[in-house]
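Hi P.,

Sorry for the delay on this. The queue was packed all week, but I finally got your sequence through. Input first:
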Amino acid sequence: MELLKLFNPLQPEWNEMNVQSLEISQTSPRYQHSIAYVYKLKTVVNGSKRVVLPGIPDGCIDLLFNLDGDSSDCLLVPSPKKRKFISFCADSTYFGIRLFPLQKLFNFLATLKEINSEEALPLFEVAPYLLPCYEELLKTSTLQENIKQLECFLTTSSIEIGDCSPIVTSCINKIILDHGNLHVKDLEQYSGYSERYLRMLFQNDLGIAPKIFLQLVNFQYIVNDIVKGDFHIENHLNENLYYDSSHFYKTFKKFTNMTPIEYQKILRR
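Then the structure:
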């Protein structure tokens, strides 16, 4: 699971163009195997009670605590299947936790397959045990205080998470190490198990088919390059995953409905 530190799942449109403020930080090292990072964002003011933020596929789950609303405004947001607008309360501060795939800290009353079939879920319907944590978070002010309270809750709570398949864990490490530049047949050869068996394991542990997860990881590495201003299509066409530029653009458009250059322009507005 240490290789997950090489995976940086981004939501680059949750930035100063679309929110009033955004702070990002990490938890203590003991929780970083499951939590990619934590963040605090304040949504914009408009004439409505709701605002929307564009979300892109990242393979993660976000837990969002509304610190200016009430418990019904807290959300669990799974990875969208493609770029989609996610509804938030306007002019509200959220404390967010972005969970890595195969995280081992939080369990839910719904299966991951059920969670991933939704755009968003009321947080306390699927994780009612987090309500005491939320009540304590409401007493905090800064992001560092949010983190301290979260870690206090995790230290004192006894959340039981079922073990993930070591086969899936090994495959995910391989996928991340190779930036998703693999086919399912490569995972078959690597693991020694059939595509059908791997699909069953991935659905159980991730709620996502291995082919889709491969594409998600690769897509996020491309997004990271775009954000860093280091995107060059030839670097990706030389890899195993794409046969030619049309195949590359088709896959990217599947997740964003636009080309990488068009997406880059949105981020630079």
